[in-house]
Design brief:
With 161 residues, the chain is of the alpha+beta class. It contains 5 helices and 6 strands. The protein has one domain: Chorismate lyase. A hairpin with a 5-residue loop joins strand 5 and strand 6. The longest helix has 8 residues.
Amino acid sequence: MVGRGKSIQDHHTNGRLRVVHVVVQEAPASEEVAEALSMSPGAAVLTRARRFAIEDRIVQTATSHIPLDVVAAAPAVGYTGPGPGGMYARMAEAGLGPETFRETVVCRMPTSAEAEVLSLPRGTPVVAVTRYAYTSTQRCVEVNEMVLDAGAYTLEYVFGA
């Protein structure tokens, strides 16, 4: 069901988080992304790279990788502002809305590039979350690679037994 929960950003920042930088472009898929999206490594995907800030401090980066046929079916996914409900709502309107998600969560020290973008003090860890979005037919339609400043987030998961 689209639109029932809060985004990871809104839930943990009480709505104070805002997108401060969005770059949408075609790029070659990495081996990991290509495997998840059932395509050849290096095949073109649409990337949506975003930076999120609380006040003036970047606390998260997120890069979504989306197959071009999904973008063709839901063109607004390629906009820097895809409209109410975001890109998942546009995918749902095209019959490609995610029905299930799988996330891999890793706590680690940041790369030098991540530490620079997030302006992290030395010794501050990050939480790397990779989210896979699947349609009702179990087709992966997005891989979202997020890096969160561990000091700015609490992750909470609720699921059935």
